[in-house]
Protein 1
Amino acid sequence: MVVKVNQLVKRYGDLLALDHLSFEVAEGEIFGLLGPNGSGKTTAINCILSLLKYDKGDVSVFGKPMTPESNDLKRDIGIVMQEVAVFDELTVYENIDYFCGLYVPDKKARKLLVEEAIQFVGLEDFKKFYPKKLSGGLLRRLNIACGIAHKPKLIILDEPTVAVDPQSRNKILEGIVALNKQGATIIYTSHYMEEVEQICSRIMILDKGNIVATGTKDALKGMISLGEKITVETFDLTTAQVDAMRSLPNILEVIDQAGVLTIRSAKGKNNLENVLEALKREHISFGKIHSELPTLNDVFLEITGKELRD
Amino acid sequence: MPVFKLCLKIINKNKMVMMVYILAFVMVSFIVRSFNKPSEGLTTYSDTKVSIAIISEEDTPLTKGIETALSRIAEVKSLEGYEDNLKETIQDALYFRALHMVITIPEGFTDAILAGEPMTIKAQSVPGSVESMQVNLLINQYLNLARLYVTADEAIGADALASAIASVMDQPAEVTIINPNPDAVQGDLMPFFFNYLAYSYMFVMILGVSSIMLVFNRKVIKWRNACGPMPSLNMSAQLLLAIAVFAVVVWLILVTLCLVFDSQNAFKTNTLYFMLNAAIFGISVLGLSFLLANLIKGKDASSAVANIITLSTCFLSGVFVPQAFLGEGVLKVASYFPTYWYVKANTQIAVLTRFSFASLKEILGIFLIELGFAAAFIIVSLAVGKRNQLRT
Amino acid sequence: MFAHIFFYRIKSLLRQRSLVFWTLIFPIALATFFKISLGNVMQIDQFEPIDVAVVNNIAYPEFVETMKGLSEGEDRMFTLILGDEQMALNALKEGEVSGVIVPGEPPELIVVKTGIKQSILKNFLDQYAFNQSTISTLAAQYPESIPELMAAMSTSQNYIMETSVTDKPTDPSLVYFYALIAMACLYGSMYGIEEVNRVQANLTTLAARLNVSPVHKLKVFAAGLLAAIVIHYMGLLILLGYMQFGLGVNFGDQFGYVALIVLIGSILGISMGAVISALIKKGEGIKIAVVLLISMLGSFMAGMMIADIKYYIAQKMPILGFINPANLLSDALYALYYYDTHTRLYQNLAGMSAFALIFCTLTYLLIRGRKYASL
């Protein structure tokens, strides 16, 4: 196991930030930590990194206990913090070189690594720029480059895409997958479920310091009673027709509104087939038809009773 | 009045740093006050007594006479018991101003004086000490009188000489200090506090006003305001009103402190003029800080500019060092700042004993100059503001 | 590794304009103002005629004549108003004259306040009165020597030989410059604040980022401190150079010692900032305000604005002088300049070193933890 967290408890005064948290991250995974703001994601990361004191539990990285003095372990960890952590007085190149230099003393080797990192995040044209002159997206990319230039085996990214434009965001996500392909294990926290769904091989959903669910995205979606959502573009339905749809098996809810019929089904097989047959049977003509699997938000909603999004 | 309210909020947020400077004012005032104990009545003329020590290598009626004469204007301290490391003791004493001067009367001094031969007394004094000048003068007076006696009567003995000089010096010029107007301010404390007020007032104003303007001059805020429905004149008016309220509050705080620290003089007519002068100075400082705030680009810069401008003008204008001591060139440069005129007015108000138009004429003129500065600053800053607007 | 961090800290610090401003530009500017405004204070050589009103009493024509004689020409001593008593007193009350002289035996001086001009007037009158009474006594006793007496009276002999306390030229304005150097040293605390901010994970994200790297934070801190000392010390040497060569401030011939004092002063200042930064958890602005206040107030009490304050404290509250780092610093400089021996200098250096050591130890105790209760 690359990371093993066992019964971790962290309190801030009366607030229980992490409540007996236990999980493992295996080598080669992209492990997603998903949860709303304040759910304990960053606290968990900081505890893993031995930055925060915790009240109970233990953390091991690469099979060894993690302490503030575990410099041999830290050497193989790359961290991209939620807030941009770069020196305003140093240029893009200097910032990456500085941080890389904390891991790689050899100058020649470092030079190659820094150049590679710059290429990797696509900041070739901005090497001499000071952070203040960079846009939000470019700044985030610099932040990432500073965390990964030394080619760590474990990369922890804490919300690296907050306030980033879609273009930079895609670039960042692609980069993370590429790093993973090169062999790095990745822990990725976010409150954007789409991102987590898109890249993570395994996902843990946190809420108020508790694990809501853990598993692959399909496994998570399989946990809940909800099946796919089918939307049909149609018009002028009679009440009888709508009722007929409602009477189909395994259907939870049917809404007919503004020429769109939304059908929510429970988990089960043949839901779409049943709907199609019913449409034909009821002589309902339709334009588009569209079927979606439940989202992680649905998962979160069903388990905690509230929305994942802010 | 949303703009007005916002301004007050911004100032409230920055009050900590400004409090530090007001606190500095309080502390300095407090120290100066305990340092300059208010004089007890003014009816007797007394020179500030300097501390001196006399090392006499001979003991004659003449040296005794000198000592007696000196003890009238100086506190003569003994150096007995320090003979072993005399040099260091003297250095230490002069270093800490425990003594202002040490004079050494050499062996054979009396004989030389009686013979009319040139002879000198060795004097070691605190460098540049004005107090020791008095001692020098007295010794020279004494010995020059001795020279006259010796000229007239070469056979005069030391005893006769000493007693003759003592009787002459027993009748010095009489000094009367009159208090021409009990309503006039007394002592140097009030003028000092009001002069020093310039430093704190200017600093706090520049910092406060620039913290407001930094917010309003931020490009995005400016654009958003420009797109809003409020006429820009209305906005400027609210802005100026807020700054004016700020200036009045700071004025109230500082003036109150001055009055508290020299409460003896708080209800004198001069004090009213000091307050008026400070208020008028406040208007020109308001203009100056408005101008600077329109030129300053960042928070770091604002504190740097506030420090440099405040300290430089205060130093050159005689806030810390009296104007009388400053060179003509310096004062000429300083006269381009309102601080110079403020201090000048204070100096004149301090010696005012009558308040007729004739005696106030010059001070009123200075007030007008200060107001002129205020107007100039505001006009220039409006022009700068306009230029900045066109640029963005 | 150490060198890597060290050189990057040097680069970083040099590029922080506000640091450079406070530790270099600001003291240089202040020193210049000092020079400009203090240049004249110490040598009031331009004597301005004193405005004086003399009551025109016909009983003392000689005195009035003497006064008239002294009020003529370019180098005159007085600017004279002659008139009756009422007019003279009015002029005094209006502030037109510094004093009113009523001739007599002895003459009387009427003033509204005491001051330098009033003292000069009084001395002049004393001299006049003494001479008059001496001459009249002697002329009665020894009429034959009147011509010699008149000749003797017209000259004045100086019986005082001013000798310096030290072998070096003395300059009272040094106190101001020394206090300023002390302040510049204490402004090093800004560097101290910065260095602690860069390694305490609960203060900045950058520091948190640093704490998860495989380098011990005390190593990073040591490298940063060294960089801060180097930069600050270089700045101080520039300041000293500017004062000595640009402004002509005389540091005596012991520049090596001055450089040593300033070095320890720099370490003292930086470590003071470090302690304050480690003690006050949040708010960069508060930290800066606190160090500015301590430095300013300390320099004030060391005599930066009013030199007498320093002596007042030295006499009345010596403890206060000894726990004031700014005073220790300026005192060390002044002692070096003033004394022939180095006893007092060493005392001050010992005090400064003790402070620096205490500050460093406190900082170490405060920042050695690498795990935080909260970030």
Note: Chain B has two domains: 2-39+182-391, 50-169.
Protein 2
Amino acid sequence: MTRYGMVIDLKRCYGCYSCVMACKQANRTPPGVFWSRVLRGEMGVYPNSVRQALPVLCNQCAEPDCMKVCPTGATYQTDEGIVRVDKNKCIGCKYCMMACPYGARYSVPEYKSYFPEGLPVSDYEKHCMQVWEEKRGCGVATKCDFCIDRRAEGREPACNQACPAKARVFGDLDDPESEVSYLIKTKRGFVLRPEVGTEPKVYYLPPR
Amino acid sequence: MGSVKLEGQVQVEWRWLIAAYLFLAGVGGGAYLVGVIADLSGGPDWMAVSKIGVFLGLPCVLIGTLFLLADLGRPTNAWRVWMKPGTSWISRGTIIIVLFMIFAAIQTALWIWPFAGPLADNESARHLIGVLGAVFAFPTVVYTGLLLGYSQPIALWNTALLPVLFFVSAVSTGIMAIMLIGRSQGVEGTQLALLTVIDAVILVFEMFVLIVFLYNAYRTVESRFSAKRILAGAVAPAFWLGVIACGLAIPFFLELFGGEGIVASLAALLGLFGGLCLRYSVLAGGTLSPIMAGGYEFARVARPKDPMPAMGKLPPS
């Protein structure tokens, strides 16, 4: 069985937001929707303080809280362990957005133009709106699915490809020979919020 | 800290619409419970109180449900909400409130509706349906606290005190709604005095639960952002003016020293507004607890209201 996961090396990440923009381009997400985000954190007190960037995305949990709280069964897991939303079943109650420990879910009532009101909507943006309505839908919960369409074409996830520091590695966690498995085993890989028990599949390597 | 103010990632999805539902479900369920208890234990003097209480159950919860529907992103899919009662509190809650509304509707149709129905004389049948309705009125009030409490990242809600707080507030606002409507329906004298005293006692208890709730939130690292947001942040006006002043302090003193007539109605009205503000404060105070990774604390830096920077006025075309 393939069980896709991602490893993000915090030592390499310098917080350039390339993954954020690549995700937006690849998935044509509307304003305010960030399936891939970068959080900023700090440690210590000035002058002995350091800052660190933390790229976050949907952790594709093995025991997802968002799926448990979904009242309609619209959220489901594929055979590859990807958590997806069936837009025809979702009622837009936004409970999953409350339950997700990583804040990875977004819902917008409508696809607003990126440009100020009054400007004509460009053909490309019309195309984006159409694709969004077909694949994701407005008013329903949307989330990262490790770029399922790009992977169907044989390409890697957009954030993975865009990362200039090669901080991200995408691969099969079930394959003991894969690079992700190797990194998690040898470089002290850890997950975010292990205490909530959702068994996330996005691993991080320590910043120092 | 410097010039950048760290604030947790605030939940913005559930606001006034959901607060209105929580409030109305509380008023309806609480009034129904009070009405049934008055019917079971009070004599014929308490008939007006129990009728008003039972009558309030259905319309309040029904209107609250409409607020829920208005909040949905895809209301046309709403019938699917029953699908997973095994794990989802929204599914369970929908079943609970529908069963409650069915029993409340039976009560209303056969007892209270302008013509005296068959239940007016048949006391044991009325009591039976009342108890069955109360069995669902209680979870109608409480499940919302459990629903919010299931959300693990929002530590403010993830506490066993929330259902208690909602229940106490529901009973208190239920009594206030009965007092408000009862003024024109002949609820006065002994009944009104007793209701006032009971409500004043419940208000003190609610204050106590609220203090413990916020103290607990403040002492927990994960929910400290939320507590600060409620006590001194963006939600502070709704909390101090709405919940503490209008909802608890003023009604308490009015009930303690004022008593009858228009003063009691004023106290009830303010208290109901306070109940709404309480639900709003709890919802709007919800912030995701900071993520810890590698010794760093990651909390979203407070961002401007509009994610898009203003681009200036467009030239006339």
Note: Chain A touches chain B through 56 residues (CB under 8 Å).
